[in-house]
Amino acid sequence: MTVVADRQTLPSPASALVCRNCGAEYPLGPQHACFECFGPLEIGYDAAALARVSHEQIAAGPHSLWRYAGLLPVGQSAARVDSGTGMTPLIRADRLADELGFTAPVWVKDDSANPTHSFKDRVVSVAITAARELGFERIACASTGNLANSVAAHAARVGMPSIVFVPADLEPAKIIQTAVYGGTLIGVEGSYDDVNRLCSQLAEEDSFENTGFVNINVRPYYAEGSKTLGYEVAEQLGWRLPGQYVAPMASGSMLTKIHKAFKELVSSGLAPASSWKVYGAQSAGCAPIATAFTAGRDVVTPVKPTGIAKSLHIGNPADGPYALDAVRSTGGSIAEVTDDEVRDGIRLLARTAGVFAETAGGVTTAVLKKLVEQGAIDTSVETVLYNTGDGLKTIDAISAGALPTAVIPPTLRGMREAGLL
Hints:
By secondary structure, this protein is of the alpha/beta class. It has 15 helices and 15 strands.
């Protein structure tokens, strides 16, 4: 991971912080909530600045998410942190398509290929760059696991102190992968929502005034990193947009930012005008957005998470209403799947596409299968499935069923007796 110190400083296309509820605007800075209505803030852009970005400019950029710096709120200064995140494989999964009955291509965007093996490297690359530009001296987060891994790793490489808060019952692999980087790791007795509440309180403490919480006071910048999942798919498809995509939902932010990226690509002339549908995936153990969708509600009722898909365990999803809007406005759908279906989804993706996904990827694959079975998704339309993490992070979820086909002595007779010869 490098911090480039001799890059020419370019103007940022970001113009303001904009409330997603009432539209109030604020100067760019470490603020995440609207003073008028307490709604969440996101980055607003100068449309003319976005329109000046060209395919040639992007192609001339680094082989990482920072090739899209002209479309992001930070990264134009020497504070940019480039870990090589992004430009992950877009895998044509013909065997998966055939098994599910698709006549159009199905692609897997495999973000397990990022440096800490999840899509969180995207949001952290942008967030830690923003934190440095905003003058923060320490980086922090509340996390269900993957974000903790990424924050600790990025902080270690640039020599920035980190303090990471996670539920104490997190998967052991994610605890180890965070602790190994040597930052401060705090296990909290409670759910992610309890962890996030604590971090929101700490962000207001004087002793934390030098600390950038990537998903609290730096959140508007952090969330924009997910847009690169949309930019890359479009570039990898030859600067066109797929007809539909399926993404897992925890807070719901990633799904909405991919949708935002597609809209920006069309409005800036980087991709031709087209329509697409958005599909969301949740596990039955934590499905507040899916429940609201099925009930036809705009309000997302918080739940207490259970089940094996812990990276999606946000019982009170901040972006739930916006995810509902993205799905409904495009004519898409949302579904939930059980733990057994999640395990089957992990195996299905591995068996047909050669991609070993963590439980969130199992959720997404299983939901795609369910949508096909329900007739809720068009199998004649090109589809992208987002896998957001590596199966080695959640290996306990399927370890009971992942055993040798046979154990034999080192002889031909052993092969014969096992029915293998």
